DNA sequence: CCGACTTTGTGCATGCGTTCACAAGCGGTA
DNA sequence: TACCGCTTGTGAACGCATGCACAAAGTCGG
């Protein structure tokens, strides 16, 4: 990196302006894939692999080789033509772009089944995401340590988040509580939220929300099951004995 | 539906050929949003709302109104111009397209923290996804009921899945076991897999995989934290006392 | 030192998804 | 019945992401 820039910097800023522009320009979809490449690369590194070609890496990551190269080009050109990429070099540059050189303190709100699972996830895979605060409303849970962290009451969310410099909030509450919890997190200065509650959160523009919605995932799969069934029925159209083909007769189905 | 078709059918198939073509044509992204609309509509229905405009619904679902109308148009035209949509009608048509008129039997593999949480999720929100089988390798878990279902040994996966007609497999195992579990599910005839393990699964073309990857989600959020920090540093470029701006000095950081 | 081979990085075309803007259609009202 | 205002449904333009194909650039063997 330091070696391959050099076009006149007019500011006195010590950080690379080019990095900021680059980071801003990376497509969202590419960011998600970079995280996958990072995991694959880390695995390779652990196994002692030191070099890798775009072809190998792309196959391990389950993507097109050209796409992988384009994704990597967003963060700079760290490959060697005719050879490939140095695993360690790629790892460190992806980590830098993803902001993993800082560790991000995480708070989990809602210590039910899912909250327990998250709190015990063990510093989050690929570490750099220490869970430093847990919240719930249930008086029986307050003070109980889960995964080594004692649970605080949700009313303390602002003070605790500020004190522990929480930068990512994870919402694992029942749906009705989610928006209220979200609002409190936001007012505590949390700007990134990972939402497991099946609710569409309303947040100000400066807050980033990502949602993980199990019901939606299941329903997408269901759609594909149905599509497949339809296709199967379509291939043997009219041959299959009438009736049982995933859609109700006439396609009209009133739910019970 | 039944009332608004009628253009000459040349086959003797009782299901709508138009439905199949339509379903095939729905963009993946739209399917995911349809699931969200369905949840919002169900909520409205529960609150006694019977009619809704695209504007209202789009706001509740957090999307653009035009996009919502286009999404709904993929499944047919069930609105009334000048009025809006009937909530119940939309609900039933979205359910039909998503294949929710059949219930889809779910198997969860890997009964750790996350597996427990999933098994107890209560038939999965928005129901229609009964968990009917649980698997693990730990002998201490075999036979123990979790969420009402006794845990089977993973070696029984084929028989049990076939017997209980599992159509969706959920992988919640440690990473190293995921591919092997996936292969077993596939050979047991499961064609849809929801993967929580941070691993890129290799599957045949006829199997649909969706992955939920917490580490990737966190890293995407981390990227946005870093981008924000950079922007903040950029706005006050050079004014901010040198150093602490999310990127290491010179943008070059070697991980420990 | 040179030429052949390998692999990266990227310009370009293609396709998909989103957004805009408006005509078509429907209910209400006089 | 005829008009008016409202909302849907969609054609068309735009923008982003993907995939291709090739030039640039490096290594290795002779």
From TrEMBL, chains A, B:
Residues 99-200 form the CoA-binding domain. Its main location: cytoplasm. SMART domains: CoA_binding. It comes from the Bacteria. Keywords: Cytoplasm, DNA-binding, NAD, Repressor, Transcription, Transcription regulation. NAD(+) binds at residues 110-115. GO terms for cellular component: cytoplasm. It is found in: Cytoplasm. Residues 1-20 are annotated as: Disordered. Pfam families: CoA_binding, Put_DNA-bind_N. The keyword NAD applies. GO terms for molecular function: DNA binding; DNA-binding transcription factor activity. Residues 36-75 bind DNA. One of its GO terms (biological process) is response to redox state. Modulates transcription in response to changes in cellular NADH/NAD(+) redox state. Belongs to the transcriptional regulatory Rex family. Homodimer. PANTHER family: REDOX-SENSING TRANSCRIPTIONAL REPRESSOR REX (PTHR35786), REDOX-SENSING TRANSCRIPTIONAL REPRESSOR REX 1 (PTHR35786:SF1). This is Redox-sensing transcriptional repressor Rex. The gene is rex.
